[in-house]
Amino acid sequence: MRSLEVSQPEVYARVEAATEILAQHGPFIRNVVECNVRDPNEIDEFYQRFYLSLVNRPIPKEKISRRYLYRAVLNDIRDADRQTNRQRRLMTEAAEQPEINDLHSDPLERLINIEETARMFDMIRKLLHPRQAQAVILRHAYGLTTGQTAETMGVSPRTISHFVSVGLRKLRELLGRESESPEVES
Description:
With 186 residues, the protein is mainly alpha-helical. It has helices at 8-36, 43-56, 66-96, 98-101, 107-127, 130-141, 146-153, 157-180.
């Protein structure tokens, strides 16, 4: 296994090698970057990042050619694009999470929502068979897929579908009857 620590003389040697590559091939590398980076504002940043990648992953002298450098630059650009897209996707997913969206709402409103959710879970647990209640809560409250719920509960996805459909049907029947019954005034 390769050690992550690099001695100081090794670091200096890598920096010299990367500097030498840029001194010999800098204009070519810059042209490749300019032609392949989408945002013109990121050209300098990417050029610097490529220099650092040359320091981190030195290219053996026998492999240094325009063709090799062209592929190395393109690979680094693709890696940077993938990383940017992944970060955007993760940020979008995080923004869609209700817990994060709730951070901007009124604290009293958040507390009321938490209490109402807890009461709803208690009611579901009282009205349904324990396995049905667990399946309904995992699927609809926590947003797990049928497969994830099945794995969590240790049963087949088909069983989860059955638990959820029967549980929801019972809840509709029970809650439908309660809302139809007249309120008794005290």
